[in-house]
Design goal:
single chain; 2 domains; five-stranded antiparallel β-sheet; 2 helices; 7 strands; disordered C terminus
Length: about 120
C-alpha cells in the first residue's frame, strides 16, 4: 500500500479524496501537496485553504482517466468531424444531388420550397 504523502507526490492528482482517522470523514482537496507532515490544498467544496496533518489521514484516493473510454471518445469525435468535412467538400464541389427550388411553391400550398434529390435527367 502506498503512503498518502508518496501517492500525492508521485501522481500529482488535481483532486484527492482524503478519509480522516477520527470520524472517517471524506474531504475533497483540490491541488493537493505535501509539506513536511501536512497535506495542503484547497477545499473543493468551500474553496478555502486546507491543512491536514498526515497523522490524521487514513486513506487517499483520486480519480484517473479511463484510457479506453478516452480513446473511444477521441475516435468518435474524429469520425464525426470527418463526415462533416466530407459532406462540406462534396457540397462545395457541386457533387450533391439535392436542390431546392424557391420559385416553385410546394404542392401542399404552404409556401415552402420544393426540395429533394434531383433525377439524372433534371428535376424530379
Amino acid at each position: 500500500m502506498v503512503r498518502p504523502a508518496q501517492f500525492i507526490a508521485e501522481k500529482k492528482p488535481a483532486i484527492v479524496y482524503v478519509v480522516t482517522n477520527r470520524e472517517g470523514k471524506v474531504l475533497e482537496i483540490a491541488n493537493p501537496r505535501v509539506s513536511g507532515d501536512t497535506v495542503l490544498g484547497t477545499s473543493a467544496a468551500e474553496n478555502l485553504p486546507v491543512a491536514l496533518p498526515l497523522s490524521e489521514v487514513y486513506r487517499v484516493a483520486a480519480l484517473r482517466p479511463h484510457g479506453g473510454r478516452t480513446a473511444l471518445l477521441v475516435a468518435g469525435v474524429t469520425a464525426a468531424a470527418g463526415i462533416v468535412a466530407y459532406a462540406f467538400v462534396q457540397n462545395a464541389a457541386g457533387r450533391n444531388n439535392w436542390s431546392c427550388d424557391y420559385n416553385t411553391p410546394a404542392l401542399d400550398g404552404a409556401g415552402a420550397p420544393s426540395c429533394g434529390p434531383t433525377a439524372a435527367a433534371g428535376r424530379p
